[in-house]
Amino acid sequence: MNVHEWPLTAFTILAQMAVGAFVTLGLVNLFAQTKYSSKTVDRLAKPALYAIGPVMVLALLASMFHLGNPLNAPNAIRHVATSWLAREILFGAGFAVLGFIFAAATWFGWFNAKIRNALAIFTAIWGLGFIWVMAHVYMLPTVPAWNHWTTPATFYISAALTGSLAIALAFSAWPIVSTKWPKLDHALTGANKTENQPAQTRADIQTQRETISLTNQATNWIAITTIAMLALQLVVGTYAAAKPAGPNPADVDPSPTWYAIRLVLLIIGAGIIGLYLTLTTHKNLEGSQHKPLLALTLTSFALVTISEIIARFLFYGEMNRIGI
Exposed e or buried b for every residue in 159-172, given b needs 16+ CB within 10 A? Predict the structure, then answer.
């Protein structure tokens, strides 16, 4: 594996995770609002939303380590009309700024719901465009192994897998976190502390039940998504393995063992655990039963993320330049 490209590996995986998480969270919000109260949706969605920002910031910071002089990064934007790299910087920074504005609007209650929804949709579309631009940075005629439709396909699948599992992890973790740190829950979601008033107590119980139900429903659909993405990744991987090789050898000759490890981790994390979650999350999880769900989503997220890291190192190792 080409482990020397760790800044680009970290940047691409984290950035794709951030985009995938934002899109997944938007879809969850869209469908949840038709069945659950806004208080319940916000109870889970807001903490997850605020966690996406730091992930994108880490991605941008990681990308700086690939530059000879990070202070020269703004100069690349001047060539946005001709350079995919310049477009990547523009789209990456744009997604971060749009995401920050949307998070701030959600936190402070700026604008009305329609404007915030429009901003969220625009940010999601911009993020998807960011991944498209990111993929085209690598689709160079001089690098046959990368100049193939499987490059953007792999990037989008990675975003769907890591992003959706990140949201599942956030949803399953938040009931435990909010119970342990109620002040944090109040700060992020505006949840009121329990009062000794019957009406307030009944409202809290109802919100708690809806939160459990929404967590189960969201985790179930995310698990189905991961299984579908696993199947799609196997198809894309088959095409990628069958694409014509360049005339020159790759920079790094990877061991088949790493491909096998990547595949096993992906099948366990996205396939087996995903199938188990699909079959079990229809049940209502009460109290301490949140911990097994958290353990499963955390394990799935970790295995899939490690699998994607290995795959990205293998991707960079496939570089085989021609014509120079």
Answer: bbbbbbbbbbbbbb
- Give me 112's structure tokens: 């009305």
Cα 17 from Cα 302, distance rounded (Å): 13
**Interatomic CA distance for residues 155 and 233, integer angstroms:** 10
pLDDT truncated to tens, each residue of the chain (324 aa)? 556 688 899 999 999 999 999 999 999 999 988 888 888 888 888 889 999 999 999 999 988 877 666 666 666 677 788 889 889 999 999 999 999 999 999 988 898 889 999 999 999 999 999 999 999 999 998 888 899 999 999 999 999 999 999 999 999 887 777 777 777 767 777 665 555 555 555 556 677 778 888 888 899 999 999 999 999 999 998 888 777 666 666 666 667 899 999 999 999 999 999 998 888 765 545 545 568 888 999 999 999 999 999 999 999 888 877 765
Start-to-end C-alpha separation, the chain = 23
Task: Give the DSSP letter of residue 5.
Answer: G
Burial 43-68 (b: 16+ CB within 10 A, else e): bbbbbbbebbbebbebbbebbeeeee
